[in-house]
Amino acid sequence: MSKYKKRKKKQTAPVEVKKKKPFPKKRALTLLGITALIFTAYQVMIALEFSAAVHIYWIGLALVAMAYIAVNRGSFRPLTHDDLSDELTKDEKDEIIRAQASRFEKSRPLLYVIIGIIFTLLFDSVYLFATINLGLKF
Question: Where are the domains of the chain?
């Protein structure tokens, strides 16, 4: 007999392979289209030398963001049964979760507008920084 014992390999549970969700092409195209419309309108306002364009977009962003928060009632993640009070019945919990999911679906267009305005303002900020501070010409 050898003086070294063989170690048994530890048994591991089989790993579940998670299926990847397909890329949401329709949502991506919708977001791209809305962003393109918002960006085009902004660039037209700038080309016409409308000096209040930036202020209108910032105020619009604030108003749409407040509307998004109001529609979702201040919630940004889906509720689960564990998040709700134990005093509620299962049917009441299901109804609350269903109502919240409905509000999230209704507020999705507002989120597309928010993202479109943010990308437009971000691009404008980067463009101004590159042309004024770095002296680049586009």
Answer: 26-76+108-133
